[in-house]
């Protein structure tokens, strides 16, 4: 990864589970798109996950770390020095994926949407909606018991997956595509960006959910490509070609989907 | 409601469904706590909901209104004049997604601004987002497998889901909210009554609302949990109700009762 022009950026630490893209991936994509150095703690060393567990997953913690408030669950972002370029100062630890993405959107110039204040909120509402879809996909294999295995809730999963595929996915795809069209018409988005004139976290976040959906429900998404050719074609492909992402997606840092949010169960796909 | 000290705040418009608290309630509580005038469009006139449907619920819209991007679903906040220009003029700004709106109001309404500078804003927001996640899980207890179908069509699955939520999820969230409260009591001047910082913030109003809804939806479960979390479900919960604008709001007609929204009472889904 190339160095950012300003050396004042802290060296971010991503605190997440090892071995899967998961929710951490939304944050990795933002950092990689901005070509900003960071450490993915769990994947960087064997003791990395222990730090994540102590900081983010201990049910009695009255603090995450460095005097910051407790965290409900990973992912979290640890910012040495609290983001203060003069050095010194406690580390800042923040949690919740959309919260971290807003933070990075503010700090990493390259991800800043145009359109002033309005642009930031318009990016964020797309980010939040994409993450809502991400949650609904998780529910397709865990509809009634978060802590039990998929195999223990197969019948319910069949019903839930059908509902998500038939009524929810199209609603979301329509929304993302209409945002894209609005921005093409009014915001200089050229049909490739969802908000503003260049890549933002709205693009990286929606892209990741689309990519995961294509893995989880390949037949469904193949069929939907006919209804949403620009979103699932041009938009999807363009994000992959952007700056830091092209390099990242072909690197070893990009982990394959396995048993995280996006899983392939043939019976849950369109038949 | 008393007038805000600055006359330059725009007259906010809440765009949400009529007749129940729902997600709109998180936004109403923030506005009411700050004692800021607003119009709850659906509940203020007969044509109000038609406007909400046109702006936020039309599946072909390429814009919500006033040139703003489309909205996925209510709630949305419409800010005449774009919210930043006290001279008037300028297009309205329309923003959507409950936590997004709450961040916006947290920035604009002094009284809700948490202390602790930049860090404080993010620490408030992670609590807000987590409370809204719990809100979603409660919705799933009566609609676990089909969002668009009735509860009665998914009763068996709902029994399983509600049991899982009551036994494993609610305690995890309550523990988290209470540890945040304790951390802030120890380190942030929260006195045990505020979750972040030394005065009421959107973290407090948002968690409060979810707790209140849970007490309606699962009264036996929450009665039992009060023994484990007496400060959160007792002192914290009781104090928020007494805060400035909220005390007046909660006894007013603007505060609608729960019915068929996120928080519903189904006896069979509660602890038996």
Automatic annotation (TrEMBL), chain A:
**Gene Ontology annotations of biological process type:** glutathione metabolic process
List GO molecular-function terms, semicolon-separated. glutathione transferase activity
The family database entries (InterPro entries) matched by this protein are listed as: Glutathione-S-Trfase_C-like (IPR010987), Glutathione-S-Trfase_C_sf (IPR036282), Glutathione_S-Trfase_N (IPR004045), GST_C (IPR004046), GST_superfamily (IPR050213), Thioredoxin-like_sf (IPR036249)
| Source taxon at top rank | Eukaryota
Residue span(s) of domain GST N-terminal? 11-112
Domain GST C-terminal: residue ranges: 116-258
Entries under PANTHER family matching the protein: GLUTATHIONE S-TRANSFERASE
The name this protein goes by in its record: GST C-terminal domain-containing protein
TrEMBL record, chain B:
Question: What organism does the record attribute this protein to?
Answer: Friedmanniomyces endolithicus
Protein name from the UniProt record:
Glutathione S-transferase
**Limits of the GST N-terminal domain:** 10-113
Any Pfam family hit: GST_C_3
GO biological processes? glutathione metabolic process
Mind listing the GO molecular function terms for this protein? glutathione transferase activity
Domain named GST C-terminal: residues: 117-259
Q: Which domain of life is it from?
A: Eukaryota
**Cross-referenced InterPro entries, in alphabetical order?**
Glutathione-S-Trfase_C-like, Glutathione-S-Trfase_C_sf, Glutathione_S-Trfase_N, GST_C, GST_superfamily, Thioredoxin-like_sf
